[in-house]
Structures are given as C-alpha cells and as structure tokens.
Amino acid sequence: MSPRADALRNRAKVLTAADEVFLEQGTTASTEEVARRAGVGVGTVFRHFPTKEALLEAVYLERLRQVGADAAELATRDDAGSAFHEFFERLVGQSGPKQALTEALAAEGVDVADTDSPVRQEVRESLATLLERAQQAGRVREDVGVDEVIALLIGASQATRWTTDVSMRGRTLNVILDGLRPH
Amino acid sequence: MSPRADALRNRAKVLTAADEVFLEQGTTASTEEVARRAGVGVGTVFRHFPTKEALLEAVYLERLRQVGADAAELATRDDAGSAFHEFFERLVGQSGPKQALTEALAAEGVDVADTDSPVRQEVRESLATLLERAQQAGRVREDVGVDEVIALLIGASQATRWTTDVSMRGRTLNVILDGLRPH
Amino acid sequence: MSPRADALRNRAKVLTAADEVFLEQGTTASTEEVARRAGVGVGTVFRHFPTKEALLEAVYLERLRQVGADAAELATRDDAGSAFHEFFERLVGQSGPKQALTEALAAEGVDVADTDSPVRQEVRESLATLLERAQQAGRVREDVGVDEVIALLIGASQATRWTTDVSMRGRTLNVILDGLRPH
Amino acid sequence: MSPRADALRNRAKVLTAADEVFLEQGTTASTEEVARRAGVGVGTVFRHFPTKEALLEAVYLERLRQVGADAAELATRDDAGSAFHEFFERLVGQSGPKQALTEALAAEGVDVADTDSPVRQEVRESLATLLERAQQAGRVREDVGVDEVIALLIGASQATRWTTDVSMRGRTLNVILDGLRPH
DNA sequence: AATGAATGAGACTTCATTCAT
DNA sequence: CATGAATGAAGTCTCATTCAT
C-alpha cells in the first residue's frame, strides 16, 4: 500500500522476468525484453538495476540464494552421505531451469574477488557443513574442500548438459560421485 | 599458384586472430577487432567467412582439430592407461588457451546433429580408440562410452577453470579420473 | 496526454523528412539522412518505422492519402467532366513534388495483393465515383474502369515527367485525355 | 584470334549479362553478380566499363539501339499508320524484357543534356520519319512531335506495366493510341 | 516512482573499386 | 589482358542508457 511496497513488488517482478528471459535467451537478451516480460517500462528496470550488469549480478545472486537454501536444508538431514549426493543431483537437475544455478555459481567464480556478497558467504558455509558431515560419515574423501566441491559442482552440471538421455546423465554423474568417495 | 597462397595465408591469419580475440574477449568480440588483429580489412574477414557465425564455427573446428590430433597421437602410446590420463590433463590444460579446446568441444556438443563435419568424426574415432585401449588395459571402467567421456572432458575443464592453483586443480581433476577407474 | 503528442509529432516529422529526402535523392537515400533532416536520431526513425521498407511504405501511403483526398474532393463537383480532367492535371502536377504521388500509386500497384490497406480501398472508391460520374455525363468512354484509369494516371505522370515546358506537357497530357473521351 | 577479338567478345558477354541481371534484379544488382553471369572476373567488368554507372549507360544505350532498329525497320513499311501503331505495341511489349527498352528511353530522358550520343540522334531520326509518315498518312494528329511521342511511349509502357491481363493492356494502350489520332 | 520515447555508439554486412599476381 | 582477393566506406539495424512527462 505504501509506495515502497509497490516498488519492492516491481523489483521482484523484474528479477523474476530477468531470470526467465536470460535463461531462455541467454544473457544477450535485451533489457527491453526483460521489461516487457515483467510488464513494466524499461525505465523501471533501470531504476532498480542501474546497469544491465547489475541486473545480471542480481539474477545470479538470487539463483545462488536458492543453491544456499538447498544446501542448508540438506545439511540438516540425518543421512549425511545421501544428502550430499542429493545436493549434486538437485543442482545438476533434470532439465534446463536448474542448470541456471550452476551458471550462477560459475559467474560467481569469475569474479571471486569483487563479488564478496554475504550470500556467497552463506552458501559457502552451508556447503561446508554439508561436506564436512558427509566426510565425517566416511562417505566423501578427505582431500577435497569446499572449493573443490564447488568446482566439481560446476563441472558436473556442465558435463551433464551434453547428455542426451537420463541414463547417460546417470552414468556421467556417477563417475564424479564415485570419484568423490573415499579411496 | 601464388594468388591462392596469399589468400590462404590471409585466411589463416584471420582464423588465428579470431581464435585469440574470441578467447580474450569472448564470442561477442566484434568482427572489426578480429580484422584489426589480423591486420586486414573487415571485408577480408567476410570474404573468407561470410558470417560471424561461420567464423566462430571455423574457430571451433580448428580447435577441435587440435583435440583430435592430441587424441590420435596419444592413442598410439604403449601405456594405454597413462595415455588416457594424459589426454585429460592436456585438455584441462595449464591455463587459458587450452581451455578453449573444451569450449570448442562444448560448442560441438550444442548441435550434435547438424554439425556433422568430418573433423568431428575423426575426433570421435581417435577418442574411441584411446578409450577402448584404456578399458582393455583395465584402467577405465566399462560402463562409459565415448559420449560420456566427452561430457566428462567438458565437465573437467569447466571445473578446473575455477581452480586457483595447481594443487587445487590436481585434486579436482583427480576426483574425475578416479571416478573413471574400474569399480 | 502529452508524451503521446510528442511522439506523434516526431513520427510526423520523420515522415515529412522521409518524403522530402526520398523525393530528392531517390529511395536509396540513407536512413541517417532522413533522421538528420527530421532533426532526430536514427534510433527514433527505427522506433517509428522498424524497417526502411516500412518507412517507404508509410511515405507512399501518405502520398496515396493525398491522392485520395483530391479525388474525394473533386468527386463532389457539379461538372463531372471537368472534375475528372482536373484530377489528371493535379496529379500530373506542375513539377517534382506532385510527381511523387504517382510514384506512390505505382508502388501500390507493385504489390496490389499484399498491400490491402484501407487507404487503398478509399482511393479506389473515390476514383470510382469520379470516373462513373464523368462517364454518366458522357465525358469519358465506357470501356475503361478504375484499373485502367489508375494505369493511365501513372502513365500520364511518367510521360509528363520528360516534358521540358508547360506547352509540351499540355500537348502530351491532352493526348491521353482525348483518348479517354467517348469514341 | 587477336587479343582484341577476345576483349571484344568479353565486352559483349559482360553487356549481355548486365542487361539480364539489371532486368531481373534491378539496377542495384551488384557488379559481382554481373561478372558471375558473364563468366568473367570483376576486374574484367571494370576494365571494360570503368564505373558501374558507365556499365548502366552502356546497357541503356544498347537497349536504345534496339528501339532505333525497330523504328528504322518500321519506317520503311508501306502502311505508315499501322507501322506507327505496331511500334507502340512492340515497345509496350507483352512482358518484362521489352519493358526494359522504355527504361532505357526513360534513362535517356533523365539526362537529355549530357548523353548526346549518336545513338540517341539516330533513334530520334528514325522516330521522326516514322511519325511524319504516319502524320502525312493522316493517321496521327499534327500537334505532336517526336518529343511528345517519346514521352507518350514512356507513359504507355509505364501504364501497361500495371495491367494484369492482355485485355486490360489492350484497353489501356488503345486510349493512348486513340488519343494520338487526328481530332 | 513509472513510463517509454529518444539517443547514438557500435555491430554486422555489402559492394564499388583497386591492384598484385 | 584477366583474375579475384583485398579494401573500407556506407548502410541497416540493435540496444544500453537517459530524460521529459
């Protein structure tokens, strides 16, 4: 009801639209297209995100947030080993949309330095918990840390991007998961 | 005899320049920039590659050719197991330039169907030989085929892209290579 | 209420500029030139007319509109015969600018099928009235219809385009007008 | 056998090809396309016609030559009246190719001043003979001269360009021919 | 705050013309 | 003389960003 509420709602609409558009058409999609999808004028997009790059960062951050939420949730599971595996499987996902999460992770990777957002810290922490519990349960080798896991997460999801059917994806992902086992 | 020679040399210059430019600035780099780097006019670039897309394809194909050459060479090694491992290590590479090979592989993956170039067939064949010999030597699990290996190659090199130092890269790549071992 | 007004004014400015430029330099004149003449940026031209072809069509349509207005006005005259003659004389015009109307008619002719704009229908109807009244008054032969008149209109104005002085134009146009008389 | 002979043959090949290409694709067709059609290199086209405009002029002149030949031939006919009519009918033609002659005439008209080629003089003279004989035979009104006839020739062929069938073309051309009769 | 028209740099591509072979 | 590769100006169109309403 307050003008602030409308503004926030618009910000959210833009972010959602941007996520969808960049997912479907790649990051070269035009800002105009994002605005159209969000049902607002271009000016509104630029009011909330002063630059296309800023918009992209926000989208990635939002995706990261979801990865973090997944990790945090799974970190509370009893069976630490299966939780770790399921995290990989969720991220690698069945189809397109989920792929995006990795893109976000990857993008984060690109400019590790300047994007030191709190979100990133949270994701790392949830991931660390998930990993350590799996290692303590003897289900993941000890010589990998959070950074290696992130890299492998990205690798796994890029790898499965070129798989043509479910069984091929399974075989491919298994290689990586097997490689993560002790020994 | 000679006019042809000059033209071919220019084609090569353009291709090399394009490879460099796209590597450094991404595929959105302008054709003018490629021309500048090659030391020719834009018209020359378009004479040899009628479209920017055609230029990109040519760059990718050239990179693929190098992957194929590596695979073919290693396929003749006595120690099939170490040859297979070295192939991964070479592709994953030390740094930027080599990374590009994977990008090319990935790009190939995108349109598996329509890009049925002979180059692609040759790469697959060399890879198949390399893989089969490693499997016969009992160094690689039997449930993966050429397609899975290609996917993992892409995954491995994307994964190692986010590694910050040699030892981290080593640990990350080892996970995948270990995962490829029997059992 | 006002932002729309400005946009419409700009659209009109562009259309007018385009009409002038295409008249002076032919239809191969550049869009930049049109923008310059209109005192706007190129982007504005393309916002209103997404394609150069669309701009050309709009220019022709506007010219057609004027032909239609002339025909409609003359169709209300008492002396149907002189009205018909005057219509020819107006179209054939004194000099350059008016000539353009025929160019528009001609362009319409090219794609009779796909350019089924209401404007075209209106012009045909006004012309039909003008013609029928002249025929009923016994001033125009009965074996010609609207289509023949349009063709002759185009012919007359192309013919007079190569006339060097007023009297030559008169003699040339008279041939056609005489030819249109009964018998 | 002499090098001159080959050169002349090439000039002719280029001219023929240019005539065809410009007819089919309009005068914006590329010089490269003309060369291709002629089976020669672009360089050869430019050796014979130093400019695209020069090539166009040559094409138009060649077309004019044919108009002149037609006029000259018909000027020898016994029946001066029917000869004059047939000249119009030939020029207006049944279909595309012949149309080109008018284009050439029109182009000539454009720069009456600077293109004072002998060809143009010859055409005028043949036409003058044809016209005068028809007038002497009482078949063409006396108040038109060669210039008016040329203008009407152009007008007639532009007019019939928009006719959709033979009968419509007939009616349209008849209006002009009737207008040319005495009285 | 929101809107969307305006802007203009810059991208891709074409083509007349030149020139080394 | 012929060839066709090279050149680069110029054209069409897109899009991030600004700003008047």
UniProtKB/TrEMBL annotation, chains A, B, C, D:
It holds the Pfam family TetR_N. GO terms for molecular function: DNA-binding transcription factor activity; transcription cis-regulatory region binding. Residues 8-67 form the HTH tetR-type domain. It comes from the Bacteria. Residues 30-49 bind DNA. Transmembrane segments: none annotated. The keyword Ribosomal protein does not apply. InterPro entries: Homeodomain-like_sf (IPR009057), HTH-type_TetR-like_transc_reg (IPR050109), HTH_TetR (IPR001647), Tet_transcr_reg_TetR-rel_C_sf (IPR036271), TetR_SbtR-like_C (IPR049445). Keywords: DNA-binding, Transcription, Transcription regulation. This is TetR family transcriptional regulator. It comes from Prauserella flavalba. The lineage of its organism: Bacteria, Bacillati, Actinomycetota, Actinomycetes, Pseudonocardiales.
